[in-house]
Every structure is written in C-alpha cells, then in structure tokens.
Amino acid sequence: MTRKIIIDTDPGQDDAIAILLALASPNDIDVLGITAVAGNVPLPLTQRNVRVVCELAGRPDMTVCAGCDAPMQRPLVTAEHVHGTTGLDGPEMIAPTMPLSDQHAVDFIIETAREQDGITLCPLGPLTNIATALERAPEIADKIDEIILMGGAYFEVGNITPAAEFNIYVDPEAADIVFRSGIKLTVLPLDTTHKVLATAERTAAIRAIGGPVAETVAAWTEFFERFDTEKYGSAGAPLHDPCVIAYLLKPDLFSGRQCNVQVEVSSPLTLGMTVADWWHITDHPRNAFFCGDVDANGFFDLLTERLARL
Ligand code: BDR
Ligand code: CA
Description:
310 residues, Inosine-uridine Nucleoside N-ribohydrolase, Chain A, 18% strand
C-alpha cells in the first residue's frame, strides 16, 4: 500500500537525506507536499533548502509551502553550529528555480487532511506547523492516520540542553499539543537515531553509487558529522530524520514500545524534555510508540539501495 504523506521539515542535511529517501521510494510513499518550518535555520533558508533538495532529486514539480517562522510562544533557537549557516553547508548547492507555493504550510496541511483520507504526517523539525494546524482545525485529528516524527530522547537525554532534544526544545508548546492530540504517534528519538551513524565505510558505499545525488549525500554527512564526532566521539553523522522515512518503508528495522510520553513545558531546567514512561510506572495513557532500537546495517542497506534509484 502506498502511504500518502506530508513531510514537515527544517533542512538540515539529515532532513535533506530524509526527503531524498522518500522521493526515491514512489512505489511505497506518495509525497503530497513538503512544508518548511523554522528550526535548524530560519524559514527563508529552510523553504529554500527544501526546493534545493527537490531539484536535486529531479522533482521540481513538488508542492513546497513555507510555514511558521517562529515557535508558538517563544523566540526561535537555531542550530547553525551543527548544520552551518545555510543549513545545508558542505557541498556547493545550486540556487533553486522551482516555485514556492503561495499557500501557507498550515493551510496546506489542513486542506490536505480534509481532502484526503488517512494521510501520514512526517515532522522532521520543530512541531510548530503541525500544532498550529491542529489548533486551527482540531477536526483534522480524526482524518490523520499517523504522525511519525523525529524528536525527543529518553535514555540518551539531550543534544541542545542536558535534558532536551532540539526539535522538541525549540517549540515545546507545539510538541505538547501533538503529544496530547490523540493521533496515533510514532517517535524516533535520539535513543534510536544516535545508533544510525554514517561511518566512513557506509559513506563510501553511498559515494560508490556515483552521480550528483550520492556525491552530495556523502559530502553532507562528512560536513555535519563534525558536531557529533567532537561532542560524543561518534563514528560518523547520526542520520536522525531519515529514520522517519525508513520507519515508513521498513518498520521491522525498528523496535520500541507503546508508552506514555509527555513534554515538559514549564521548568527552565528541563524545558522540552520528553518524559517517556518506558517502564509503565504510571497508568497514564500510552500515547506514543517510542522507538528504542534500530538495525543500523539494515537502515544503511535500505538507504544506499534507494539513493541509487535517483
Ligand atoms: C534533530 O535536530 C536537527 O538538528 C536535526 O535535523 C534533527 O531533526 C536532531 O535532534
Ligand atoms: Ca530536522
């Protein structure tokens, strides 16, 4: 069955690779549109970067909408220290010529959810666009099949503060709305994504495909691995966001458990923390499937095989 999805994203090299993985898999995934949100870098850059990636994938026909330029209640926090000033630093990228849609991302999400039964939302950045759509049109919650998102952490704790993962920390109020929405929710947290490392050997296998897409992906991972190799001593860049698309394509690569997950929205110390009741200590509703582990070799086999199709 082909899954109809909207990718909501803040590219970011790992977002870009997630988009490529989805666009390389048209038999499995029908990308209805890609919505940009402020996150890793400000909105003018994230919407531009989405179009850069669509053109790289040979999809200048894709609907790309710009959304919210700031979190619901807070100033924007960005991550140029990870992704560089453009968000897609590394290889030289060609300026996009494909158009940006006139429609706001939030309106696109609402309209698409109303018109199409059973869409899946794939957020790869702060949850501002998604939560704003749910606030403005709460009835769409019943029309959305599933939200599969990259965000949060439990055993791995934080990457932007000691307690919080970046996507949730940037807009905790938005994350809180999504986690309380009642929509089927699958979460790819740092606990999983920190195991998906683009080692030198895996990057070489991608580069060996040949061609501009493979070369660009290899150069992106080589650029943005420096943050994690310096901070965590990782063996390569963690491909956080592509885990969302890999989960759609091959859920058996991932394991986890259904549990209660809540977002801290008030404590200055632990703002944006995802408190996952992994051990079922409470009777709180089990609102999310929280992935804890992944077959990383299987992930890279899938990614390499799919990128070769572009
Ligand atoms: C998340 O934050 C961003 O920097 C990445 O693109 C990913 O979505 C990881 O914490
Ligand atoms: Ca991202």
